[in-house]
Amino acid sequence: MNKLVSIIIPSYNYGFIIAETLQNLLEQSYQHWEALIVDDGSKDNTREVVEKFALADKRITYLSQPNSGVSVARNFGFKKSKGEYIQFLDADDLLSKEKLALQVAFLEQHPEVDIAYTDHLYFETDKPHITYPDYEMNNHNWLPKIDAKGYEAVNTLIYSNIAVVSSPMLRRKIVEKVNGFPEFSNYTEDWEFWFLCAIHGAHYRFFENEKAKTLIRIHHRNTSKNIQIMQAGELQFRKRIVTAVEGSAFLSETEKQKLLERNDASTQKLYKYMMYHANLLDPKQLKILSSLTSSKTFVSYYFKSLNFKRKNLFKKTR
């Protein structure tokens, strides 16, 4: 078992924490890896920190690009990589000591599996020894645990994301098949990438092992995303789902119809939620919401939202 694992790490202004991430890799029990850190136009000391590690260990490579986003950075790193197995890793995340070794062994033993993903734990950067199964720290494990390909895998991914980006280990061929991460996606690039892998026939399997986990850091840098912008990104992604499902060579016509119906239901539910919780007096919000659907649907939900807000106001004043 001596297959090269390429660890691809995009980084934008993570100089303050990336040393801990790289030290974590040095402490992995599996040592046959290369780490490609793609500096996405950072304005901090990222280069200085990474190059110090690179001078001490030839497995670490510093790459840079003009600020172009995380998907472009991951794709750039992948093109420069050589490994048969691929591990994407965010610059502030960590891996359990045995994760790489255990996942490589698992994939070697199961050649039919394209993507093996593990469990994950979230931790606050100032409280690393206290962990949670969910980002909201409510002790809710949201992770779907599947052994599937084709319709079942796509059906799961239409409903929700399947894994954080640093959890799976992938065979190189599946990343090549889907041409990497979608570079036009907003806030759903990980989810959309997993979905595209499924559409192209990838076999997913959850690898359950207490010693193989991803550790995801919670701090101010990843808690400031605007919820409405993220939801708008999901709606745009759901439009692309239609095209992907219709063009899939791995699905029957009956399966396609079921998937499109489920996607439509999820789209309508999300759009309804966004309209009902929007500030209808805010022109910026209305402009975003009107751009996400047809004029007819927007007007319909606009008046439904007005009625919903009117009823709630009436309840509060009773």
From TrEMBL:
Molecular function GO terms recorded: transferase activity
Keywords, sorted A to Z: Transferase
Keyword Transferase: yes
Keyword Transferase applies: yes
Domain spans labelled Glycosyltransferase 2-like: 6-121
Protein name: Glycosyltransferase family 2 protein
Species this chain originates from: Dyadobacter luticola
Taxonomy of the source species: Bacteria, Pseudomonadati, Bacteroidota, Cytophagia, Cytophagales
